[in-house]
Model the fold of this input.
Amino acid sequence: MINRKFLIAGNWKMNGMFDSISEVCKIDQYSKKLNCDLALCLPNTIIYKAHENISHEKLIIGAQNCHHEESGAFTGDISAKMLKNAGAKVIIVGHSERRQNYFENNELINRKATSVINSGLQVIICIGETEEEKNNGQTNDVVCSQLRNSIPVISNGENTVIAYEPIWAIGTGRIPSLKEIQGVHSQLRLLITEIKGTETANKMRILYGGSVKPNNAKDIFALEDVDGALVGGASLKSEDFLGIANLCP
Ligand code: 13P
Done:
């Protein structure tokens, strides 16, 4: 059995003001007792303040998206390098809310992920099927095609994390069966082996995301190819987020 260190990453989405930093600080304080790695991907407006207020012992701060170029005439956009400058150490790319709302495709996500890695940061690449695709039995085809096309050539087991988030499980309280989650994760690991080789596939963490809560995380974490979670709603409250992190094996 291969030991990959668990990563519990929170995605605050469009939530959080300056006064939410107290919640970040509670997570930071407690995180020192945990065995897993911990990340909070915050709105850009509070990244620097969080960065200034944490101990930098365990918890890392991250962002939820970036532009694929380093700088230039891109009004309203922000680059991986700028986010790094503000204190981010990890950036999520390809979240389904961006794929759906901003029509981001695999090619663009690949460029964004490349830019994150080239900036010296870790990238979390999200993939996941719609409910219709699941019902049509297309889950494995969809997620494998997303992964194959969005993972950069320069990705390795250290700079890249994959997050499998079935779109229909996000914010709904519904999750796939444990067998289905393990099935998708093992398929993804096989594909990483094919693209990057066994050593990288053994190192690369594959997170599950979608309605992860303190009451279902333990069973999900017991699955062989699950190496942590990408948590939305339950990452906004320190008790819930830490409750999940505490269940890491
Ligand atoms: P929920 O945990 O709220 O379902 O959100 C999952 C998610 O989208 C994390 O990126």
